[in-house]
Write a structure and sequence with these properties.
Number of domains: 2
Organism: Neptuniibacter pectenicola
CATH topology of the largest domain: Rieske Iron-sulfur Protein
InterPro entries: Rieske_2Fe-2S, Rieske_2Fe-2S_sf, Rieske_Fe-S_prot, Rieske_Fe-S_prot_C, TAT_signal_bac_arc
Shape: globular
Protein name: Rieske (2Fe-2S) protein
Strand order of the largest sheet: 2-1-3-4-5
Structural class: alpha+beta
Number of strands: 11
Low-confidence stretches: 10-29
Helix content: 10-25%
Mean pLDDT: 82
Cofactor: [2Fe-2S] cluster
Order of helices and strands: HEEEEHEEEEEEE
Strand content: 15-25%
CATH class of the largest domain: Mainly Beta
Oligomer: single chain
Keywords: 2Fe-2S, Disulfide bond, Iron, Iron-sulfur, Metal-binding, Signal
């Protein structure tokens, strides 16, 4: 074997090994409790940025008032799943009479939870336009209909927001099922 061929072979083997090491680290990181996606039984909390959290009660949510940004928390361990920004959700109370069927089946007592990550380029969807009854992303002005399962009403986003199916137990907002679709945007 020529020296050049030998060196190319070594480089390929090293690249494969490095890739496997990266994927192993990525898998390990994705299994950290704080980075895991919401699981049934998690409660929704408001985090203060210092690891302190307050559980959101359904009764504190007023009809069509600005959404609350929240993260899921494992109530048994206290782990807040804020290790991934894709776990950030918007929680809001809507009029159930105006909801489409998909929205109704994933909500509880008029309370909905949607991914707070825009499906266009991943900015935070952090505003509610009361007059239009729409969520709004300031980055590129995409708008989403919370009454129609997060449907896009104005682009450039083309995919609806992911919903987080919830239920209410003892006035707390609890995750009922995983996100209805992968939150965020496609790269």
């Amino acid at each position: 074997m020529e020296r050049r061929s030998f060196l190319k072979s070594c480089a390929c083997i090293a690249a494969v090994g490095a890739t496997e090491g990266l994927s192993s680290r990525a898998e390990a990181a994705s299994k950290k409790p704080e980075s895991m996606r919401p699981v049934p039984g998690d409660q929704l909390v408001v985090e203060d940025g210092h690891g302190n959290a307050r559980v959101i009660s359904a009764s504190e949510l007023k009809l069509e008032v600005q959404q609350i940004l929240a993260f899921p928390q494992d109530p048994k361990t206290g782990v807040i799943r804020s290790g991934s920004r894709f776990n950030k959700v918007m929680v809001m109370r809507l009029n159930p009479e105006l909801m489409d069927e998909d929205t109704k089946k994933n909500s509880a007592e008029g309370v909905v939870a949607y991914s707070a990550i825009c499906t266009h380029q991943g900015c935070d969807v952090n505003s509610y336009i009361e007059e239009k009854k729409e969520f709004f992303c300031f980055c590129h002005y995409s708008r989403f209909d919370p009454y129609a399962a997060g449907k896009v009403t104005n682009g450039p986003a083309t995919r609806k927001l992911a919903m987080l199916p919830i239920e209410i137990k003892d006035d707390f907002i609890i995750v009922k099922e995983p996100f209805t679709r992968k939150p965020g945007y496609k790269k």
